[in-house]
Amino acid sequence: MQHNVHPLVRAFQLAKSGTCKTMTDLRAALKNEGLASDHLVGRSISAQLKTLMERPHNQ
Question: What is the pTM of this model?
Answer without folding.
Answer: 0.86
